[in-house]
Amino acid sequence: MNGRLSRLPGSAPRRAAAKAALSVLARNRPAAVGAIILALIVVIALLTPVLPLLPPDAIDPANRLIPPLNAGRTLGTDQLGRDMLARLLWGARLSLAVGLAATFVAALAGSSIGVCAGYFGRWIDALLMRAIDMLMAFPYVLLALTIVAALGPGLFNAMIAVAVVNIPFFARNLRGSTLGIVHREFIDAARLSGKGDFSILVSEVLPNVAPVIVITMSTTVGWMILETAGLSFLGLGSQPPQADLGSMLGEGRKLLLNAPFVSTIPGAVIFLLVIGVNLVGDGIRDALDPRLRSGAIARPSPVTAISRGRAAVDAGHSQGVLQVRTLSTEFQTAGETYKAVNSVSFAIRNGECLGLVGESGSGKSVTALSLLALVQSPPGTITEGAVLLDGEDVLSKSAAALRFIRGGRASYVFQDPQSTLHPLLTIGEQVAEALRAHQPVSRVKAWDKAVRLLDLVRIPNAKRRAHAFPHELSGGMRQRVGIAMALANHPEVLIADEPTTALDVTVQAQVLKLMNELRMRDSAAVLFITHDFGVASDICDRIAVMYAGQIVEMGAAEDVLERPAHPYTRRLIDCVPALGSGIRSFRAIGGAPPAANRLPSGCAFADRCDFAVAECRARPVGFVAVASNHLARCLHPLEARGERTSA
Amino acid sequence: MLSFIARRLLALIPILIGLSLIVFLIMALIPGDPALAILGSYATPESLTRLRAEMGLDHSLPVQYLIWLDNILHGDFGRSYSLNRPVLDEVVERFRATLILSATAFALCSIWGVLAGVVCAVRQNGWVDRMVTALVLIGISIPSFWLGLLLILLFAVRLHWLPASGMFAIYGGGDLLDLARHLVLPATTLSVVAAGVIARLTRASMLEVLRQDFIRTARAKGVAEASVIFRHAFKAALVNITPVLGVQAGFVLGGAVYVETIFQWPGIGRMLVTAISTRDILLVQGGVLVVAASYVLFNLIADVVQHLLDPRVRT
Questions:
Q1: The total number of structural domains that make up chain A
Q2: Do A523 and A566 share a domain, yes or no?
């Protein structure tokens, strides 16, 4: 969904990317403010030599320390009677020039080091990066001081010192991004075409890492201006009579009591300059960093955004403990709308297990997460439908009420227990937490109960294992923990999202057996999501097949498995090599599912279907009852005997 | 755990050797003759030769380094010519003052930074987030030497609430309360930049963690939102924040140079600035080496703390 911007060669996409970045930058209001501040300062600095100013170094003891706005002096005079305005403008010009010079020196040296280390690798990399580590072992300002101590005070030396101190930032960032592209095909291609290292570095590597150089410059230039000013403030930068903003502040400091303006005004200009630089720098970083641009860093809210056109749901006649009606969930990213779940309806009775089967990307998991509004938003929104739990619509509940349903009356078992368990909490704590979120039990009681639950899901030596962290357990054991958490409060509905996919086959069987037993114990309704018909046939009473966000076939498990009516189901079953049936030819389904932001108006499977005719594509296809309680979303359902499957 | 610390300590050895080499080389490569710098341009050739021999300058560079290193390992950092006292004594005394200031500032910036970052992440794009983000931007853009002056003008000159300079009052001071009063302004000034950096990182780190699958699990369990934020998300984010705190310790330690100069705090930063101006090379070497070594130590501590926080790497 949030495709990372791939940095491929070729000027057209690069130009497009640059254009996109510029438009992001232009729409960024803080960055615009920063740009205005910065532009003003730069223009004034450039114009300083031609402005009608008094000479900045002309000493006039008779007119010492005139306060601002007095005697025709806009900003007054300093301790030697020099005109503050003139000195300020010339000083700002100098500070800006030195800060920028330091940035360019650091960028040039640091980027060269980083790119060479990343490109050549091996001992060159080791040597360069150890040297960089050495530089980073010094506290930032201290290293600059040490270099100035060696070179001697002076503005040029201060500039060099500040540049050296910032070299590691460039070297590290550039090494990283060079490493990221150095093994890509176009570098190999350039090498095969006989280009030398230098020419590859300049023509292939450099254009691709250039954004990183710009980002690093924009984030460090503010510091560098501050640091050069700081060294001047300490008397180690610009030497009198030449003055930059830092040294003006440093000299004026002694007059703080009598004439504070002599030091505070130059300080304010440094501040303005740096804040302008930082605002623009943040804007540049946001514009060039694709991760930030796609809004990926947005915090998901605890409850999925719900904007249903008509939420009116008649609570009435209930066909099961869980009833889902025309549920639709969309993702909005970068101006595109992806329909992940498209008007899905089903019902599950107590003790029944409905299998939701489909390829990855068919919308199974999003359906599961939508049931209790757990889809991340942004970017997800539930746009239509209702989820009725005992006839009550879950999606119209408040966040607080929803929290009690989650893990209480309805709970989840997720796919990958490696990433879904908290890595820093013991499994006992995590199971106990599930209990305490819903039952008024003491910490000690909850722990005891947690141990018993771990025992129930057959974690050997549960009492001791409760103190283990997730990474100390095997995948199967972790999934048992996940199941223990889900069953902690005897849920009426259990939503299992590919609970066995990440596990070995033997472990898979054990976990399935366990889930089945526990479902019988609580007679919970189970929504079992899987892409594996074998697993589905083991545990499910009924099966719903999903494709491109829609359920395309639904019926009793044996009906769907033995007499599939939808061509897609047929093809999906053919993909599974059946055990014990001898060698069967393994047929992958040609083509790919339609993109979720460009769903066709007709049957979504038409383009991959062997039997598609014009009317399949003409309009949405509704359900057809092929037998009692067996529905298929197909105009020409396969005949029950399956003669047409040999094609 | 002990073996981890032992391994880290071993890994420090090359870093410390590297540090000493850089400090030595920078000072050794200073153009001009240190003996001439000390004795001045009226020195006789004989006295110059004698001083050079005394300072070991007649040996080759590697030999000079080994002699210097050997001396330092024996606690002999040489004698400051401008202060006419052993470098080590001066450095230790000054470093104590710097540590008091830096540690206070570091505690302040850690608390402010982490709090601000968490609040911003939780209220992302709300008005609190916008306001704190603006404050953070000001914090990282403001020159500490200017902020210090403004604070002195307001709280010392105008309001007379707090002392403007020094570590203790000249008359009748010396107790802890006196020290605390003198600490407020410089420690605040010193903490501002680092607090901004920490806040930014905490915010980003929290936002990153809040998207993780295990947070979704916590929500699916029905855990209260406050507990999701603090027990689940913050705990995981802290693992990423700790190393940055170590780096910020270095920024605080270095930034102390400005703050000590403004508030006339008798720390090592001010000592270094003076020593650089007077070209007291041994004093500069000693001071830089001690501060850099302590920074290495802080990073080690951050490393160990991160290790304690994260059971995955703890073995």
A1: 4
A2: no
Structural domain contains residue A186: yes
Nearest by CB to A222, which of B141, B231, B254?
A: B141
Kindly state the average pLDDT of the residues A488-505.
84
Residue type, B169: A
Cα–Cα dist A168/A165, whole Å: 7
Task: Let me know if residue A486 belongs to a domain.
Answer: yes
For chain A, give me the number of helices (H) and strands (E)? 24, 13
Cβ of A421 within 8 Å of Cβ of B273? The answer is: no
Over 90: is that where the pLDDT of B191 sits? Answer: yes
- CA–CA gap between residue A450 and residue A432 (Å, rounded): 5
Q: Which of A1, A28, A129, A146 to mutate to test the interface with B (most CBs of B within 10 A)?
A: A146
Would the CB atoms of B217 and A420 count as touching at under 8 Å? yes
Instruction: Please tell me the distance from the alpha carbon of residue A165 to that of residue A138, in angstroms, as a whole number.
Output: 9
Q: Which residue of B has its CA nearest to A430?
A: B218
Could you tell me if B140 lies within 8 Å of chain A, comparing CB atoms? Answer: yes
Give contacts of A 279-338 with B, CB under 8 A: 279, 282, 296-300, 302
Q: Which residues pair with A493 in a beta bridge?
A: A410, A525
Span A411-438, average pLDDT: 89
Whether residue A412 sits in one domain with residue A390 = no
* A461: amino acid identity, one letter: N
Whether A514 and A430 map to the same domain: the answer is yes
CATH architecture of B94-314: Orthogonal Bundle (1.10)
Examine the predicted complex and report whether its ipTM is higher than 0.95: no
Indicate yes or no: pTM above 0.90: no
Chain A partners within 8 Å of B284 (Cβ): 146, 149
Residue A339 has pLDDT above 80, yes or no: yes
The string of pLDDT tens digits covering residues A224-251 is: 999 999 999 998 888 888 888 888 888 8
pLDDT digits (tens, 9 = 90+) for A312-324: 455 555 577 888 8
Say if residue A647 is in the same domain as residue A527: no
The reply to whether A370 and A473 lie within a common domain is no
Q: Report residue A383 as tokens.
A: 């746009």
Any B CB within 8 A of A623 CB: no
The torsion angle over the Cα atoms of residues A574, A579, A584 and A590, rounded to 10 degrees, is: 30
Burial call A42-71: b when 16+ CB within 10 Å, e when fewer: beebeebeeeeebebeeeeeebebbeeeee
Judged by a CB distance cut-off of 8 A, whether residue A476 touches chain B is no
CATH number at A387 reads 3.40.50.300
For chain B, the structural domain boundaries read 2-87, 94-314
Instruction: Identify the domain containing residue A312 by its residue range.
Output: 300-396
Interchain CB distance below 8 Å, B309 and A424: yes
Confirm whether A34 is domain-assigned. no
With CB atoms and an 8 Å threshold, state whether A300 touches B146. no
Q: Which residues pair with B79 in a beta bridge?
A: B86
Tell me the mean pLDDT in the region A19-23: 71
Q: Does B251 touch chain A (CB under 8 A)?
A: yes
Instruction: Please determine, for residue A636, whether its predicted confidence score (pLDDT) is greater than 90.
Output: no
H, E, C per residue of A300-350 = CCCCCEECCCCCCCCCCCCCCCEEEEEEEEEEEECCEEEEEEEEEEEEECC
- The sign one gets for the Cα dihedral A217, A220, A226, A231 is negative
Band of residue A579 on the pLDDT scale cut at 50, 70, 90: low
Q: Which residues of B touch A139 (CB under 8 A)?
A: 250-251, 253-254, 291-292, 295
Which residues of chain B from 60 to 99 reach within 8 Å of chain A, CB to CB?
none
**CB-CB: which of B143, B227, B295 is closest to A230?**
B143
- CATH number of A244's domain: 1.10.3720.10
Cβ of residue A406 closer than 8 Å to a chain B Cβ: yes
Chain A residues with CB-CB distance to B277 below 8 A: 153, 235-236
pLDDT of residue A3: 35
Residue A239 lies in a domain: yes
| Residues A341-400 pLDDT 10s | 888 888 898 888 999 998 888 888 899 999 988 888 778 888 888 888 888 888 888 888
Predicted local confidence at residue A8, as pLDDT: 44
The reply to whether A378 and A420 lie within a common domain is: no
